[in-house]
Each structure stands twice: as C-alpha cells, then as structure tokens.
Amino acid sequence: MQLTSQQSLPVSQAIAWQALNDVTMLQAAIPGCESLTLIGENEYEAALSVAIGPVKAKFKGKLKLSDLQPPESYRIAFEGQGGQAGHGKGTAQVRLEAVSANECLLHYEVQASVGGKIAQIGSRLIDMAAQKMANDFFASFNTLLQQRYAVAPAEPVPAAPARNPLQRLLDWLRKRLFG
C-alpha cells in the first residue's frame, strides 16, 4: 500500500516540527492510540486499537525516527503485531514546507505492507481504512494545534467527493471482468 498526500497546518514550520515530536500531542491525535512511549533516542513503543472492515485488533509495535533534518523532515520506520489479526510494517517520509510565518505544508509518503487476516480483507478496504485514519489524524492534529497555539480555525478544505459503495463495487467488477 502506498499513501501520498499533503496537509496544510495553521502554524509555522518550527511549531509544526515541535508538535510532530511531542508524544502527548501525537498520542491524542492518532486514531485508536492507547499508548505511545519513548523507549530510546527517537524510538517509540505504541499500542493501538484498529478496525479494518470486520477485523478489529489491538496492535503493539515500534516506531523509529531516522534521517532527522530539523525542522524540515524525517523518516519513520514502523512495525506492529496484532495477534491473529495479522501484522504490518512500513516506512513514512515526512517533510514540512514553510508557506508563511503562520502556515506550513506537511507532505507525507507512506509505504506499508500487511499480512495475516488483515491482508485477506482486500487492498481497497485496507487503502480506504488507511486514508480514513490519515484524515482522522490530521483533523485531530489540526484541532490540537489550534487549541495549543491559539490560532484561528482554518477554513475547511472540501474533501474529494466520496464514491458511494455501489460505485466502488461497479468499479471493482469492471476491473476484474475487463482488466
């Protein structure tokens, strides 16, 4: 699975960098995060409750930050085990780009793989769940930034129109039947 996007953050690049390295803030923003604990230099242990379609599991895993270029970028390597539900691992490249004194863009590229029961669900459902988790994270993260740094709420960015479930099914059938 690959996930690439960018998000506008209502704070300076320096403040965004500080927030992205704040364990308390990240734990509050990550959907389903039960704990996020620093266990070494730039290394964390995490526990998350995740639901992807019919599969619900508690994952325990590790995150390691590398290639740190404050306040611009870093790489995250992650891996997690969810018992019978399966496992996942991957990397993410995170880059901050200053737009103005009070705004920056966060660019991210994630490459991940899953195995076990979760992998049997299907890539479309996994991709949709990953996108939803990313959207939920950034909605919470932006709210926390606004609260902590007393910035005015940003104008909502209209989401891309969601395809209804019937349209997704028809697209899937077309792809399977007609290549």
UniProtKB/TrEMBL annotation:
InterPro entries: CO_DH_gsu (IPR010419), START-like_dom_sf (IPR023393). Transmembrane segments: none annotated. SUPFAM superfamilies: Bet v1-like. It comes from the Bacteria. Pfam families: COXG. This is Carbon monoxide dehydrogenase subunit G.
